[in-house]
Design goal:
The strands form 5 sheets. The chain has a 7-stranded mixed β-sheet. Strands 10-2-1-14-21 form a 5-stranded parallel β-sheet, with helices on one face. The protein is an alpha/beta fold. About 50% of the residues are buried. α4 packs across α8 and α6 runs antiparallel to α7. The chain folds into 3 domains: about 170 residues, FAD/NAD(P)-binding domain; about 140 residues, Polyamine Oxidase, Chain A, domain 2 (Alpha-Beta Complex), CATH 3.90.660.10; about 80 residues, Guanine Nucleotide Dissociation Inhibitor, domain 1, CATH 1.10.405.10. Helix content is about 35%, strand content about 20%.
Length: about 450
């Protein structure tokens, strides 16, 4: 064990994803000394652009993908670091989509497939979702909503069942919940569905733009890390112990040659709670924070990125956006703004189907997904050239998708997510109003840095 370093206005940031880097950058600019410990060999966390293997210079996002036009922090950071953003031609919320449910498949507006205009029936559910959104006047303070506890005891599935909606429309919206929140509707808090609807879907007729960073989203965390002092970020440094003392926090991490310990006046825990559960906290965290770390629910998601010889979906007048019940869940094209004859199709699978795909080997998962696409679109299998995949439940420093609040989670854990445990502060997409997005990660890091700076002066 190395000797401890003197904690002179030092903050130890655990995790070099967007949350940790946002906190570190703000603190560095406020004249704090920052030490950032990252378990992986790279910065970015769940922001990971995959380039290797794909030809024609194409790439796709293995992790965080979409920047909404209502995400000012992400758009602001991109401008600050001189990064361009491309508007996505058909993002994953696009509704002019192909649908596959219970063995049927076709365009939403094809009554020969669904026995009705499924798109019109879905619009009625969007209108009901807008009404649900109105029940959470302030999505940043969901517990102040009227009947918040009652809403948090119910599930999204309860709400869907209560609607007078056609069977296939309900199935379709269950699939959308599975895709957006990476969890089954029966395990997702109705209060959090309402909270997210208040953020994103208060107007059923509104359409908003989404963006990606040109060249890959991981260019942003790489630029943020480069703006820190050269010795600030330590890679391959998984944290194993956090000791909170009266006047400092000691953080022990594993290296190739043993263990090292660094000390700071404060620490920021900016990693998924799924992996925070592996850390030994001494003394134990306060009960509310301990329960939050160990019990907050996470979803499951896999991505399979298929590069085809050509963009066959365009010849079929399809925007590559599919919603289905299983096993693919959701698809889109990440290369719509990229050059090249070839094109990549992202197959994004959350919830129980995502868990099932994660339990397969990478090779078997790829085979199953290609077969699933071929089943819906015969003749596409022979066009496959390169495939990459990531199963986030298996990634050792993520162990899931992102936080997916189960019934009761908001009631029990919302406040601890935003409050410090002594000298330890919490950041990450789970501790944010814009939860589940890259915007939320940045929001949480900046909030933790601000709270820490204010409290240090008291």
């Amino acid at each position: 064990m190395s000797s401890l370093q003197t904690p002179t206005q030092t903050v130890v940031v655990i995790g070099a994803g967007l949350a940790g880097l946002a906190a570190a950058l703000d603190l560095h600019r406020a004249d704090w000394r920052v030490i950032v410990l990252e378990a992986r060999h790279r910065v970015g966390g769940r922001v990971w652009t995959i380039r290797a293997g794909f030809v024609e210079g194409q790439h796709a996002e293995g992790g965080g993908e979409y920047i909404d036009e209502r995400h000012p922090r992400m758009l602001g950071l991109a401008r600050e670091f001189g990064l361009s953003v491309d508007q996505v031609q058909a993002d994953w919320t696009a509704r002019e989509e192909w649908v596959a449910l219970e063995g049927r498949s076709g365009a939403e507006r094809d009554p020969a497939v669904w026995g009705l205009d499924l798109a019109e029936a879905n619009e009625r559910i969007w209108e009901a979702l807008a009404a649900l959104a109105a029940r959470v006047p302030d999505p940043a303070r969901p517990l102040t909503a009227p009947n918040a506890a009652e809403l948090d005891r119910q599930t999204a599935a309860d709400w869907l069942t209560s609607l007078d909606a056609p069977y296939y429309a309900r199935l379709h919206f269950e699939s959308r919940i599975r895709a957006e929140y990476t969890v089954e509707a029966q395990r997702f808090s109705l209060l959090d569905l309402a909270r997210n609807a208040a953020l994103y879907y208060p107007d059923p007729s509104a359409r908003h733009s989404s963006y990606r960073i040109r060249g890959g989203n991981d260019l942003l965390p790489r630029a943020m890390a480069a703006a820190l002092p050269p010795s600030a970020v330590r890679l391959n440094a998984p944290v194993v112990r956090v000791s909170a003392l009266a006047d400092r926090v000691d953080v022990t991490y594993r290296t190739a040659s043993g263990f090292e310990t660094v000390s700071g006046s404060y620490a920021v825990l900016a990693i998924p709670l799924t992996t925070a559960r592996r850390i030994d906290f001494d003394p134990p965290l306060p009960p509310a924070h301990h329960n939050m770390v160990h019990r907050l629910s996470y979803g499951a998601v896999t991505k399979v990125l298929i590069q085809y010889r050509n963009r066959w979906w365009r010849a079929r007048n399809w925007n590559a956006h599919l919603m289905n019940d299983a096993p693919l869940a959701c698809t889109w094209e990440p290369t719509g703004e990229q050059a090249g004859e070839r094109g990549i199709l992202t197959v994004y699978t959350g919830g129980d189907p995502g868990t099932a795909l994660a339990q397969m080997s990478d090779a078997d998962r790829i085979t199953a997904v290609i077969a699933g696409v071929e089943h819906l679109f015969p003749g596409t299998k022979d066009l496959v050239e390169q495939v990459e995949t990531i199963a986030w439940p298996n990634e050792p420093y993520t162990l899931g998708a992102y936080a997916a609040f189960a019934p009761g989670d908001l009631t029990h854990y919302w406040e601890p997510l935003f409050t410090s445990a002594g000298r330890l502060y919490f950041a990450g997409e789970h501790a944010a109003v814009f939860q589940g997005y890259m915007e939320g990660a940045v929001e949480s890091g900046q909030r933790a840095a601000s709270q820490l700076s204010v409290n240090s002066k008291q």
